Structures are given as structure tokens and as C-alpha cells.
């Protein structure tokens, strides 16, 4: 027996409304109205979603039937590749600049190769 069923009076030979006060009937009708409103709202949201999906599918079908042209995706992938290559070149430039940094600092502070840390002697690799 569900929670809602327990609110109904025992229907041993009586109609459902017998034994219920007008207030009880009013509460029950309000609950049913609220449930109906919630269901209508949910169905409305589903309908809106289906309409939006249908619109998108129509646009996709329209685009699919057009004569193919230059793809903007390929253009943007080319631009992204170019940006990555530029970044790689910049990193390479920084690597060259910092490659001799340990030697420059050691010379500036007159630190001999024998007093450097083992990781510095290995090129920074521990």
C-alpha cells in the first residue's frame, strides 16, 4: 500500500467520497491539481526539448544537403597548429637562453664545477 493510498478511507462497500469531509476532499483535489500541473510542466519541457532537437536536425539536414565548401573546422585546426608551432619555437628559444644559465651563474659567483650539486653537474637531471 502506498503512502497516498493510506490517506483514503477504507472502501468497504462505500464510494471513495463517503466518510470524507469537504476539507479532506479539497486537500485531495489540491494535491491532484498540483500533480497535474507538475506533469504538464514536465511534458512541456519535453516538448520544448523535442522541438529544439527537431530544429537542429532540420538545420543539419539542410547543411548536409548543401554543396561542400571550405570547412571552418579545418581553418581553425590550421590556426591552432600554427599557434602550437609558434609556442614550440618560443619554448625552444627559452631553452637555448636558459641552457647556459647554470654556467653563467657559476662563473658570476666563482663556483667551480667540483662544488656544484650532483644534479647541476648532470645538467639539472637528478
Largest pleated sheet: none
Large-scale geometry:
elongated
The share of residues in extended strands comes to under 5%
Q: What's the mean pLDDT score?
A: 77
Tally of helical runs:
4
Could you give the order of the helices and strands?
HHHH
Oligomer: single chain
Write down the Rg: 38 Å
- The residue ranges in which pLDDT falls below 50 over 5 or more consecutive positions are none
Task: Please specify the SSE layout and strand pairing.
Blueprint: H1 22-65, H2 72-99, H3 101-108, H4 118-121
What would you say this structure looks like, in words?
- The structure is a single chain.
- It contains four helices and no strands.
- With 126 residues, the chain is mainly α.
- The chain starts with 21 loop residues before the first helix and ends in a 5-residue tail after the last helix.
- The longest helix has 44 residues, at 22-65.
- It is elongated.
- 0% of the residues are buried.
Structure in a nutshell:
With 126 residues, the chain is mainly α. It is built from four helices and no strands. The two termini are 71 Å apart.
Name its key features.
mainly alpha; 4 helices; single chain; 126 residues
